[in-house]
Every structure is written in C-alpha cells, then in structure tokens.
C-alpha cells in the first residue's frame, strides 16, 4: 500500500494556514462531483461535535473555471479531486497563479503533470491496467474518500498549533526571490481583448493594464507571461 | 501525534514556530489512519462476504428483470450514495444499469422537505417512482436516520428489494424488518465507516457486474474493436 502520509501532511498544513488567513476552500471534481460535495460538507459541518466549521464550497460544473473566475479571491484555495488527465481541472489549475490561489489536487488513476498544482496527493490503484483511463476503482471503493477524510482530520490537528499557522509574509513572497516585487515573469489572465496594444489582465495582486504589442492578439481568458508591465509571451 | 488531551489546552502551542515536528506527527497520523481504514475494509469485506453475495444476487435478479435502483443517504452518505448510483448508471467498465440518486434534484428535495418534512424526502420519491420490480439502497453511518427508516418501510410495503448499509452496530436499520439485507460496518468512527461503506458498495456493484455483464469475448462490439 503506497503511503500518502508526508505529502498529505504538507498539504494539510498549507490548507490550515490559508484557512487561518480567512481563505475559502473551493472544491471541484468535474468527473466525480460527489467527491467535491463530500469534501465541502466535511469542512462546513464537521462530524465531530465542537470542531470548527471552515468555509468550503463545492462547485458543480463541467466547466468550473468559469464559475471560479468570478468567485475566488486572492489567497483562497482550490481543491480538485479528479483524474490527472482532467481537462476542466487543468484549465482551472493553469489560472491559479493569475487568480492568486493555492491549489491542491487529490486523485487516483493517471497522475497530473508534476507541477500542475501546488500540492498533489495521489492514490496509485493500478488503474493503468484498465482500458478506460477514468476507470479508477479508488474513486468508488472508499480510498479516495479516505484521502480527503484524513486531509480534514490533519487540517484540524494543525489548528491545535496556532503558532504554526501565522502567515509571515505575502504568500507570493515565499520563494527566495519575491516574484511580485522584483517583477519577474508573472502569469496574468486576460480580461479584455487587446486594443491599441494594451489589455487589462488579472494577476495575483490585482487588475492591471499591460502592453501587448509583442505577443499575438489576445482574447479574454488567455494566459500571458508578464514582465515589466508587458506581456512577453502567451502561456499555452 | 498530539496527546488526546491537547485539545483542552489549545494555546499551549501558541509560540510554536518549527513546523518540522508537527509535519512528522501529521504524516504518522495519516499513515495510521490509512492502515486502520485498510484493516477495517479487509475485515469487513471478509466477514460480510456471504451477506454481500446474497444481497448482490437479489439485486442482480431485480436488475435482470427490468428493475431500477434507487440510492439515498444524508450528508456525506448522500455523496457516497451518489457515487454508488454513478457506478451503476455510468460504470467505469462493464454494463450500465438504471440507478438514481434520490438527493440529486434539489427542487424535489426542498419541495418535499418544506411541505411534508425531511423525514419523508426519500419515501415520497419512492412512492412516486418505484414499484415491486425495483431496489432501494440506503446508506447511514448510524443506521438511525429517520428518513431512511421511513423510506425502507414504504419501499418494503411496495415490494421493493431493500438493502441497508449502516455503521456502528447497525442501529435501527439492522433491527428493522423492512431492511431485507443490512450490511454493517462494525466500527465507531464516522470516517472509517464511510470509507468501508463505499468498499461494500463497490463490492456489491462488482458482484452484480460479475453476474450480469456479458463476458468480453462474446461481446460483438468488443470483437469489432480488435479490427
């Protein structure tokens, strides 16, 4: 039995820190919508009397990115429970940096790309042996449920350690180089079609108008890499 | 792992700054729960194998004769019910069978809850939709949910096959004459119970598939795939 202890521990602490900073947890499971509902109800209405309720929401849509684009605030958390080849999930995850959200991806079966989310915790259930790629028994036999049950349990344990939950700095400044402040490449999501070589984009720090003269014509929803106030490339 | 009494002194750790030991404890706790879940699943499936096989045989017979499956539960169990219904209607492999999750329609659920009370939200739907060919499966960790007990009672009266999946010692569902097959996860953690209830549901579905699915070799479409 593959052990998910360490990745889940790191994921739970990250989620607890975001909750401590007033984040909402947005749950999506385009292929298995019942799992998103299950996670949300765990956090909102804990099974253990006296445990605190956390704001968690299930977004039921085959196109969750459209709903999340309006709903999420910078600092929130998006949790996906889906196969690693889930196209709608990938559409959400690629926008995470532009929206300023932390991303968690739990699943079974085919794995997502290594850096597709900030935290990936996976159950290897031998699904590769089954012809259909979404044929993952762990999604139905309780093992995926176990994964988010334990995430819930560990998140509550973290709240018994308030000293470890303080957010010391801007979450986007955790790296050695602060990408926001030094204006290294940042991801932005285009809000308005470019006009006269300018377009409005959403980034983790807000909405800004950037120069788009050196990239091909962009339309709303496109992702661009921004440096020094200009889109320097499209993000495929 | 934190001592069981740590919750009484939540601010003792307020000055804690090094997350390393917490992460070690969390990982250890996760592994222990993963092991406990796997052990409970194995023990329960072993102990219940005859009961699951017997429920699956009855369920397969109904489906084979044109019956439909209605699945329901509350809260987390409603999502496990949805998962079970999805397995039957849109199976990852094998043959699909007609199955409905009775919490899927919020208009129906809120209309019934508001007008006749939440205790009747499942039984009223069964009365509207189900007959003696059909099957009702309800999931409850306590085994005591009022709306499930009402549903089983009305289902049995209408001649449905009734299957309950419960936890703890089975609660009132285990004692009810209206629950023909009651599969119980003998544990006292809601989370561990739900995980193993899902495993029971999967075992039921697998057993039905084994009984009713056409063998792949004799499926003409499967042969076509090889050209």
Describe the structure.
The complex is a heterodimer of chains A (236) and B (227). Chain A is of the alpha/beta class and 236 residues long. Chain A is 29% helix and 22% strand. Chain A has 7 helices and 10 strands. Chain A has a 5-stranded parallel sheet with strand order 2-1-3-4-5, sandwiched between helices. In chain A, a hairpin with a 2-residue loop joins β9 (223-227) and β10 (230-234). Residues 129-134 of chain A have low confidence and may be disordered. Chain B is of the alpha/beta class and 227 residues long. Chain B has 9 helices and 5 strands; from the N terminus they run ααβαβααβαβαβαα. Chain B has a 5-stranded parallel sheet with strand order 2-1-3-4-5, with helices on both faces. In chain B, α7 (171-175) links the parallel β4 and β5 (181-185). In chain B, α1 packs across α8 (190-212) and α5 (123-129) runs parallel beside α6. Chain B is globular, with a radius of gyration of 21 Å. Residues 216-227 of chain B have low confidence and may be disordered. The chains are: A alpha/beta (236), B alpha/beta (227). The interface between A and B is large, with 47 and 51 residues.
Rg calculated over all Cα atoms of chain B: 21 Å
Which stretches of chain A are low in confidence, meaning pLDDT under 50 for 5 or more residues running? 129-134
Shape of chain B: globular
Q: Which strand order do you get reading across the main beta sheet of chain B?
A: 2-1-3-4-5
Number of helices of chain A: 7
What structural class do helix, strand and pairing data of chain B support? alpha/beta
Helix and strand element order of chain B: HHEHEHHEHEHEHH
First-to-last CA distance of chain B: 57 Å
List the strand order in the largest sheet of chain A. 2-1-3-4-5
State the helical fraction of chain A: 25-40%
- Beta-strand percentage range of chain B: 5-15%
The helix count of chain B comes to 9
Strand content of chain A: 15-25%
Query: Structural class from helices and strands of chain A?
Result: alpha/beta
Major sheet attributes of chain B: 5 strands, parallel
Count all strands of chain B and give the number.
5
Largest sheet of chain A: 5 strands, parallel
